[in-house]
TrEMBL record:
Residues 3-251 form the NAD-dependent epimerase/dehydratase domain. GO terms for molecular function: UDP-glucose 4-epimerase activity. It catalyses: UDP-alpha-D-glucose = UDP-alpha-D-galactose. SUPFAM superfamilies: NAD(P)-binding Rossmann-fold domains (SSF51735). This is UDP-glucose 4-epimerase. Its cofactor is NAD(+). It comes from Cohnella lupini. Gene3D superfamilies: NAD(P)-binding Rossmann-like Domain (3.40.50.720), UDP-galactose 4-epimerase, domain 1 (3.90.25.10). InterPro entries: Epimerase_deHydtase (IPR001509), NAD(P)-bd_dom_sf (IPR036291), UDP_G4E (IPR005886). Keywords: Carbohydrate metabolism, Galactose metabolism, Isomerase, NAD.
Length: 328
C-alpha cells in the first residue's frame, strides 16, 4: 500500500513526504516541478507530471497500490491570485476535480487536503474556529474553499472521505537541515527577514504599523512545518480507521506580531536586521490566530515546536546552510 502525495516537491509537501518516510510508509509523489524542487524529495517514487493530464494520472493510479492521497499541489500566492484568477481556478480547482475523478475511477476513498486560513477571510473573532464564517478576501482562499466544497460533494456522492487541514502561517524547516522553504518569488515574512540577515536584502519592509494591535503590526499564528506534516499523518490514520470526514484548523494558538518576528530573528541570527515601515498590504487582516482545539482533541495533534524562537531557529539553520535554497 502506498500514499500518493501531490505537490510533494513543495515546501509543506516535501516535509510531509519526509514524515511519511520516517513512519515507514511507501510514498508516491506527483509534482509538475513548476514550483517544487526535485532535491526537496527525500525518498519515494516521483512521477513528474500534472494532475490535469488524465492519462498521466490514470497511469500513476494503475501502477501503484494507493490507499490514500495527500493533496498539496496548488498555486498559493495571494497577490498573484488576484492578478491571474484564471490560473488559480485552472490549477487548483480543475486540478482537484481531475484528481477526484481518478480517485473515484481507481476506488481510492481517502484524501487529506491542504487548506488554508485564507478560507475565512477577515475573521469574525479570534481565535478562529472551524465553524466560523468562510468569506475569502482573495482568489487563492476562494479556490481553496471551492476545492474543500468539491471534495465534500464527492464524499456525499461517492464516499470519498476527507480531512481538510486549514493551516495558519507555516514556517521553519526540517530538523535534518536537508529541506526547507524556497519559494520564487518569496513573499513570506520569516524567509524574507532571514534573507536580510544573510545580506541578500537591505531591509525588511513592515507592511503597516497602524493596525489595532499592541505594537501596531499584524499578528499571525506561526506553526512549524514539521508539526503540519505530523498532522497529515494523524489525519490519514483517522481516515484509515474509518472515521468520518472533518475539517481542522492547524495553528499553534499563539499570536506574534511582525515586529516580534523581526526581534526574535535578530536574537537568533545576531544580525541587526534593519526594518522599514511601509504602507499596509491590501487584504491583510490585523490578527489571525487559530483555535486548534478540534485537531488536538480529535486527531491527537500537539504542535511540538510551538515557540517562535524554535521555529525561527530551524528556519535559520536551513537558510544559513542553503543561502540559495535548492539551487546549487
Ligand atoms: N509581512 C511584512 N513584510 C513582508 C512580508 C510580510 O510586514 O515583507 C507581514 C504581512 O503583512 C503579514 C505577516 O507579515 O502581516 C505575515 O505575512 P506572510 O506573507 O508571511 O503570510 P500571510 O499571513 O499573508 O499568509 C499566510 C499564508 C497564506 C495564507 C494566509 C491566510 O502564507 O498562504 O496566511 O491569510 F493565504
Amino acid at each position: 500500500m502506498a500514499v500518493l502525495v501531490t505537490g510533494g516537491a513543495g515546501y509543506i509537501g516535501s516535509h510531509a513526504v519526509a514524515a511519511l518516510l520516517e513512519q515507514g510508509e511507501q510514498v508516491v509523489i506527483v509534482d509538475n516541478l513548476y514550483q517544487g524542487h526535485r532535491n526537496a524529495i527525500l525518498g519515494g517514487k516521483l512521477y513528474e507530471g500534472d494532475l490535469r493530464d488524465a492519462d498521466f494520472l490514470a497511469k500513476v493510479f494503475q501502477e501503484n497500490d494507493i490507499d490514500g492521497v495527500i493533496h498539496f499541489a496548488a498555486n498559493s500566492l495571494v497577490g498573484e491570485s488576484m492578478k491571474d484568477p484564471g490560473k488559480y481556478y485552472h490549477n487548483n480547482v480543475y486540478g482537484t476535480l481531475c484528481l477526484l475523478e481518478q480517485m473515484q475511477k481507481a476506488g481510492v476513498s481517502r484524501i487529506v487536503f491542504s487548506s488554508t486560513a485564507a478560507t475565512y477571510g477577515e475573521p469574525e473573532r479570534v481565535p478562529i474556529d472551524e465553524f466560523d464564517r468562510t468569506l475569502p478576501t482573495n482568489t487563492y482562499g476562494e479556490t481553496k474553499l471551492a476545492m474543500e466544497k468539491m471534495i465534500r460533494w464527492f464524499d456525499v456522492a461517492h464516499g470519498i472521505k476527507f480531512v481538510s487541514l486549514r493551516y495558519f502561517n507555516a514556517a521553519g524547516a526540517h530538523e535534518s537541515g536537508k529541506i526547507g522553504e524556497d519559494h520564487s518569488p518569496e513573499t513570506h515574512l520569516v524567509p524574507l527577514v532571514l534573507q536580510v540577515a544573510l545580506g541578500q536584502r537591505e531591509h525588511i519592509s513592515v507592511f503597516g504599523d497602524d493596525y489595532d494591535t499592541e505594537d501596531g503590526t499584524c499578528i499571525r499564528d506561526y506553526v512549524h512545518v514539521s508539526d503540519l506534516a505530523d498532522a497529515h499523518i494523524l489525519a490519514l490514520g483517522r481516515l484509515r480507521k474509518g472515521e468520518d470526514s472533518a475539517i481542522y484548523n492547524l495553528g499553534s494558538g499563539n499570536g506574534y506580531s511582525v515586529k516580534q518576528v523581526i526581534d526574535v530573528s535578530r536574537k537568533v541570527t545576531g544580525h541587526s536586521i534593519p526594518a522599514a515601515i511601509e504602507p499596509r498590504r491590501a487584504g491583510d487582516p490585523a490578527v489571525l490566530i487559530a483555535s486548534s482545539d478540534r485537531a488536538r482533541k480529535e486527531l491527537g495533534w500537539t504542535p511540538r515546536r510551538d515557540k517562535l524562537e524554535d521555529i525561527v531557529t530551524s528556519a535559520w539553520n536551513w537558510h544559513r546552510e542553503n543561502p540559495t535554497g535548492y539551487a546549487k
